[in-house]
Give the backbone structure.
Amino acid sequence: MNAIRTDSRTGVFAALRQTPRPVVYLLIGVLVNQLGAFVQTFLVLYLTHREFSVGQAGLALTAYSAGAVFGTMLGGELTHRLGPRSTIIAAMTGSAALLTVIPLLATPGRFAALLVAVGAAGLVTQSYRPAAALLLGDLMPEEHRVMGFSMMRIALNAGAALAPLIAAAVILIDWNLLLWLDAASALTYAVLALLLLPNVATVRDAPEPTGERTGYGVILRDRRYHLFLASVLVGSIIYVQYTVALPLNITADGHSTGLYSAVLVTASVVLILCELKITSYVKHLRPPLVGAVGTAIMGLGVAGYSFAGHGAAPILLATVVFVLGVMINGPTMFAYPSTFPAPVKARYIGTHQATFGLGMALGPTLGVLAWERLGTGIWPLCGALGLFAAWCAYAGIRENHIANTSAAEASEKAYATRDIEVSDAEPGTEASDAELGTDASDAETGTAVSTVTSGTGA
């Protein structure tokens, strides 16, 4: 399954105009779900309010984070076997059920059951991400694929920025309502997926005549992808330090907490307002170069926090540079796994998402330890690690879909052109290749091209 091709117009407004309607529904679902994503942020506060100890609350958060990491791997496998739409529906329905149960288990005498429920909630809640990424990559016009991932990142960041404001109001009414609203947002996403998202058929593994393995065997042998994953892991650990080590630095220097709030607002505003425009420029450049330059700039921006002791201006300037790097490399890095052949694409996406989640989970602990041992020396270290991650990105990202020079490429050639089934298509209604802008030339080059039949007006 490859992305649909349309005309060659580029730019932010061209990408928005050419965004298929199912992608719009997908992004709305992502935003709605993120607006209610309260658990990971407020779990410790919620459990201490319910008379659990700080240690128990921390253990529950660890269980959720561990579940989230494994959930992305599970999501990749479910997407491969069930398809992205079914995976999103199952993940969000399961998340809603578990989040509804957590308040019933939130008593000190039921901590073991609560721990299992919280870990399972992290597992199923995050398993939708590979499915959403695969669906976005397949449905977005190929020339705007990177822009599509930029739109998804903006939806995630906008939801993450607004969710705490909603939570602050909800807490004043009832702490349990926090969990129930989270469940409601997940269930809303499940309903949107059921009614509005296309049922995209996935390509399963098939034994190769040469005996070559497919699926995870391909990933294990793909050494260049290992370098890409190393860049993702190190980059995510660096990224999270502006929410971990930076507030510790600001406090140690005697600045007010208001300065840290200004940093968060600055980062959110710059990213939401500027990422699409920056992506419209960098998407024309070589992906390895974009990944490397953006990662290096991100690392250098974080290294700029070394000057935090000189006042607010250097901190805010370093934040802008840091966010600039994130905006440059983020969409390209997140879009890259979706360029792999259909037989292994879901697993490549799931592995990438799990690696990113692992870095975000390890980052806080490593950041605190580094701050305790190195103090402000953590910032030059982040800068050096950023350069290492940049090299890994440059060496690990292949160009122009030359992503499978081994068994994965052979696996793709074993498959004929497959149809994408859309469950909500009207009887007798079929969109032609010309209407959807499908480029038949892909089939001539041996690439499997999907025909989309949709009654949603995509």
